[in-house]
Amino acid sequence: MPPKISTLIGGLRIAMQALGAKMGVTLRIEGDQAYTTGSEIIIPTLPPDDHKAAVLARGYVDHESAHVRHSDFERNMGTWGELIEEVYIEKKQCEDFPGCAINLRDMVGILKHEDGSFRGTKSQPMSLLTSWLVCRGRADVLGQPLGDFASEMETWSRQSFGDPFCDQFAACVARVGSCNTLDDCVNLGNEIETLITNPPPPRQKDKRPESGKNNQSADSGNSDNRSPGGSESKGTSADSPRTSAGKQSDNLAGLRTADVGKATQKVDLGKIVAQMLGKEHTKGERTGNLEDIPDTHHPSVGAGSGTGDQRRIEGEMGFDDARRKTSRMRSQLAGLLQAVRLQQSNAKRAGHRIDSRSVYRVACRTPDTRIFEARRDKQDDNTAIVLLTDRSGSMNPEKMSVALQATFVTAEALELLPGVTCAVGAFPWGRDLAELKPFGAKPRAGFFNIGSSGGTPMAEALLWAGMLLTHRPERRKIVIPMTDGSPDDIGKTRKAVERLKECGIEVYGIGILDTSILNWLRESSVIKQIEELPAALIGLLKEALITRRKVA
């Protein structure tokens, strides 16, 4: 059974990048903050196997990609227009990608119950209206679990501002789902702003009959009122349930000078989720439970991309010479692997299954009764391999040249072996890792024409390789790093090795003129001369693919 996506190395990254690619947006996972530039979405590195972080990340990508696809970042929508636009873009997104509705609904549920978002406060009257609008729109149009908040906000608003104003505001709220363009959002937002600027006065209380004048003072002092929170009280305290017309007029007047931007803080979904993702990153960093996996960089093939150009580059980089020097070893590896993978059947005289290929023996002049199958042909497990080449600053031109020759000719040979495929990566490449050859492709010399620079982020490189491997269909998965020094962080590197092994990935290494690799990976060999690297790499593969396979 394949592992669940949550247990895969980089499982969240794989899911997020697939989601981003499907929606036509660029997604990067790096750093400690979530944000969007208008053309790409950035998610911070998050703890693996964290369900909450995964739900928030998926919902954030859905929401922000909706902005990228449907918003006009150059347009001034107005504050109310922006609030209506939030519902509009998500509605469009869910129409195009129905799965987004589930992701957004799950995310809103977390925000509602854990973060206390979407709920306005009586101390900030404008927030009652912004919350009412957003919650009702999200509940009725998007099916998100905010209907109870919307009803509560409407009740509080009617007590604070009176029915005449709230009836008109409710009519505007009911039209949020009818907005089908950004123009509709802006126009409806302008109507709300006009309503707030020129609100209808609240209704005055009915005058008491003349006969009740003598008791009017006492009655007014003891009349029951209901507070916005629904509690019963006496008198005209600050929590008085049935706000007087005068108080409602004051509240309506206060809306004209209220800070609408501040009132939207609890309903600004993008900012709320970005802050929560930042907290999830910090929590994972504090517990040492982050998988800081670099993104994949795809180097340019260079000026020449034709067959002739590739052959010329192969000659210039010494690949032809490397092929000649390793041809015998590569042929031996192929032959041994073929012998191990295919176990021939030998017919026998007794058994439960007749071997159809041996029945003819019975009809011979001297009959041979060995016509029963002894065992069937058995195909051994298929294998996926990632070769990692260190291109740090300490890899001088000679080391770099031999390392690239070794990986090129070895990758070329592996792709010809039955049941085996490989990918090649070089690290570092700025903040990323360069993929010199993907799985299943023939290596091209132009992609290997690179130099050296930077440090040795071995832990990140190993996790990158693990991310490529954990969702592969092959049953055996192997990573082989080649390096000439110590990792930038040996503790993180040891943890990365353990993480790979937990996911069933075998890790073997080669130290290039340096024994530091033995400090974090026992399954390693060290070469004393750079010329030994091609033979050492092929020998290690022979050990992994054949000897260890037989033992297993």
Write a structural description.
The chain has 552 residues and is α/β, with parallel strands linked by helices. It has three domains: 229 residues, no CATH class; 203 residues, 3-Layer(aba) Sandwich (Rossmann fold); 36 residues, no CATH class. It is 48% helix and 11% strand. It is built from 18 helices and 13 strands. Strands 6, 7, 8, 9, 10, 11, 12 and 13 form an eight-stranded mixed β-sheet that branches. The longest helix is centred in the middle third of the chain and has 23 residues. The protein is elongated. It starts with 10 loop residues before the first helix and ends with a helix. The N terminus is likely disordered. InterPro entries: NorD/CobT, Uncharacterised_CoxE, VWF_A, vWFA_dom_sf. This is VWA domain-containing protein.
Summarize the structure.
By secondary structure, this protein is an alpha/beta fold. Helix content is 48%, strand content 11%.
Short key terms for the protein model shown above:
552 residues, alpha/beta, Rossmann fold, 3 domains, eight-stranded mixed β-sheet, three-stranded mixed β-sheet, 18 helices, 13 strands, 48% helix, elongated, disordered N terminus
Strand content: 5-15%
Structural class computed from helices and strand pairing: alpha/beta
- The gyration radius over C-alpha positions equals 34 Å
Backbone shape = elongated
Annotation field: number of helices: 18
User: How much is the average pLDDT?
Assistant: 85
What low-confidence regions span 5 or more consecutive residues with pLDDT below 50? 1-6, 206-243
Helix proportion range: 40-55%
How many beta-strand segments? 13
Number of domains: 3
